Amino acid sequence: MSHTFLRKFGTISLCMAICLSAFWNHTALVYADVDYAAEAEERKSLPIQTNEIENWPQGPQIGAEGAILMEVNTGTILYAKNIDEKLYPASTTKILTALVAIENAELNEDVSFSYEAVFGIERGSSNMGMNVGEVITMEQCLYGILVYSANEVCNAIGEHIAGSIDGYVDMMNAKAAELGCTNSHFVTTNGLHDENHYTTPRDLATIACAFFSNQTLSKMANTAYYHIPPSPTQPDANKDLWTHNSLTKGTYTYDGYIGGKTGYTSDSRQTLVSCAERDGMKLVCVIMKEESPNQFLDTIALFDYGFNNFQKINISENETNYTINDADLFQTENDILFSSDPIIEINTQDCVIIPNTVTFQDLTSTLNYETADAEENGSLLATIRYQYHGQDVGSASISLTSGSVPAIADSAAEMDSASLQDDKSDINLPSRSGNIIFINVLKVIGIILLILALIIISIIIVAFCRNYNFARRRRSRLSRKLRRRNRTPRNRRRN
Predict the structure, then answer these.
(1) How far is CA 365 from the centre of its chain?
(2) How far apart are CA 36 and CA 290, in angstroms?
C-alpha cells in the first residue's frame, strides 16, 4: 500500500513538474516574442514634426516613441516627435508630485506614514523601506522621491497635504491644467501603471519647465546620493539613497546638466525628463517609451542638437517694426523733474530662440492685446508673439515701466490707451474700464504758454493793425482840414 502510494505521488509530482515547466516555457516564449530592441529600432522611422518646418535644423532619428526639446523661458519647441501622443509617464510623474508639494508645504514640516501610504503600492516596486507610524520631514520626502523614486513617500506626501491620496491626485491634475496641459490625466501620486494615468511629451515638458524653474527642486533632481539619519520618529538604520539616473550619477556626463528624473514600468518602458543650460538657453528634454540605455543617449543627442543649432536673440535690441510712441501727453511723473522716460516699454529680458541660419528679421509677429489683472500683472498691456514658418519661437511683453505713476487713477495698473507705431500706422490699445490718465506736466505748461503767447501775439497784431488804420484816417482828416483852411482866405479876397 505504501509502495503504491509512493508511485502515485511520484507520478503526480512528475506531471505537475512537466506542467509547470511547460507553463514557464510558454510564458518565456510569450515575453521572448516581444523584441523591444527591434521595436525601438523601428520607431526611429517615425516622423519628426519639426523636421518638416522649412529651413528648420534636421533633428536626430531616435528610438523613442515620443520626444520633445523645449526652451524653458520662451516655451519654444526645438524638436518634436509625437509630442501630443498619450503615453505612460511612469515615475517621471514624480516631478509633478514634487512641484505640487513644494508649493503647498514647508520643507520642515513632519510627514507621517500611514498603513495605506506604505502598503498601497505594488509589492517589489521602488520604495525606501518606510514603516507605518514613522515620520520624516517634507525635505527628506522630496529627496526620497526625486533621488530614490520612493513610491510610498509620494503617497505619504499626498495624505499629508490633501488629507488623502485621491485628494492629492486632484491637486496634481488641477496644477497640470493650470500650467496649460490639455492631454494629461493622473491617477496615482507615483506613476505606478494605470491605464488611465497618462500624459504627453508636450504636457510633461510643460510641467518640467515649471519644475526646473524652482531652484530647490532642480538641486534635488541633480543629487546623486542623499542620507537620512535615524531619529526618534524614524529609528531605522541609516537610509542611503542613490539615484538610478545615469546622467545624474555621472555614468553619462553632460556640460550644463541641471537635473532629471527617470521612470520605468513594463508598459511605459524607459522614460526620462532632463534639463540643461548653456549660453543663456535652458532646455528641457522629455523621452517617452524608449529602451535602456538609449533614453540617456537620446537626451544627450537632443541637447547637442539644441545647443549647436539654435541661438537666443534679445527682442528689445532687435525689434524695429514696433516703436513706442510717447508723444502727446503720455510720460512718467518724473517729467516734473525734467525727465522724459517713456511709461511704456518692451520687456528687455524677453527673447526668441531661432535657428542659427535665421535672422530676427525673418520672423513674423502679431500684436495681441492683454486683459491686465490689476492684482497680479496690472502693468501688462500687450504681447508681441513671434513665429518662423508657423512655429512659435518666443514673445515679448509690452508693459508700463516701473517708474510710471498715474496722476489720476480710477483703478490700479490699467491704462486707457497706449500708442504703438507699427511701420505705417498707429495701433491703439482698446479702451478699458478703470482708466488711468498720465499727464506730462511740462508739456501741459508748455502748451498753455504757447497758447497764451499766440493769444498775446494775436492781440498785439490786431491792436497794431487797428492803430495803424486809425492813424492813417486821422492824418487824412487833418490833411483835409488844412486844405480847407488854406482855401478859405483866397476866396474871401476875391470877394
Answers:
(1) 19
(2) 9
Q: Provide DSSP, 140-192.
A: HHHHHHHHS--HHHHHHHHHHHHSSHHHHHHHHHHHHHHHT--S-B---SS--
Residue in this structure with the C-alpha cell 492684482, named with its chain if needed: 375
Please say if the pLDDT value at position 28 is more than 60: no
pLDDT at 324: 57
The more confident residue out of 281 and 465 is 281
In single-letter form, the type of residue at position 123 comes to R
More confident residue, 339 or 218: 218
At residue 326, does pLDDT exceed 90? no
Sign of CA dihedral 150, 81, 393, 301: positive
Task: Return the amino acid letter for 284.
Answer: V
Type of residue found at 227: H
Burial 126-164 (b: 16+ CB within 10 A, else e): bbbebeeebbbbbbbbbbbbbbbbbbbbbbbbbbbbbee
Instruction: DSSP for 57-102, please give it.
Output: PPPPP-S-SEEEEEETTT--EEEEESTTS-B--GGGGHHHHHHHHH
- The pLDDT of 444-457, averaged and rounded, is 87
Reading the block at residue 205, the C-alpha cell is 515638458
pTM of the model: 0.77
Q: Which residues contact 75 (CB under 8 A, 6 or more apart)?
A: 209, 392, 394
Residues whose CB falls within 8 Å of the CB of residue 266, separated by 6 or more in sequence, listed in order: 193
Residue with cell 527673447: 351
Residue reference for cell 519639426: 50
Which of 192, 200, 196 is CA-nearest to residue 264? 192
